[in-house]
Amino acid sequence: MLMDRFDNTLNLLMFLVFTGFAVASFVIAAMVREDAYRAADKQTKKFWLILLGVNLALNLFLPGLLFLLIAGLIAAIVFMVDVRPALRQVMGGGGGGRRGGGSSSDGPYGPYNGGR
Fold first, then answer.
1. Looking at residue 43, what DSSP letter applies?
2. Could you tell me how far CA 49 lies from the centroid of its own chain?
3. What is the pTM of this model?
């Protein structure tokens, strides 16, 4: 009985994580301009929307097919880890996680010049 409850909780948690990640990656892919994909030398926007849309549909309508869900999760991870940073850099949003593209030695009031 305890294992059944654990299995149900684990399945629900996996469903929520996979579906949330699929929604986030699909929305991000949809918000980026088509020309940014070409400038970043990545697959087209249409390709990523179809791939991530199929992933999202599988998550919502066929949550029992774990193999397909994992394949879709891998596609979403590739988008978020490889394609999204390249798109951000092309669109001017790169900078190592810092807004504004400042140097790593910049402080809150401007560049740090070593006390000179």
1. -
2. 12
3. 0.72
Q: What are phi and psi of 19, to 5 degrees?
A: -70, -40
Q: 106 pairs with which residues across the strands?
A: 111
- Domain range summary for the chain, segments of one domain joined by +: 2-92
Q: Which of 85, 87, 80 is nearest to 33 (CA)?
A: 87
Give the residue among 13, 14, 7, 6 at the shortest CA–CA distance from 69: 14
Sign of the C-alpha dihedral computed for residues 99, 102, 106 and 108 taken in this order: negative
Which residues fall within 8 angstroms of residue 53, CB to CB, at 6 or more apart? 26
pLDDT in tens, 46-76: 999 999 999 999 888 987 788 888 888 999 9
d(CA 17, CA 100): 31
Residue 84 CB: number of other CB atoms within 10 A?
Answer: 19
Three-state DSSP state, 101: coil
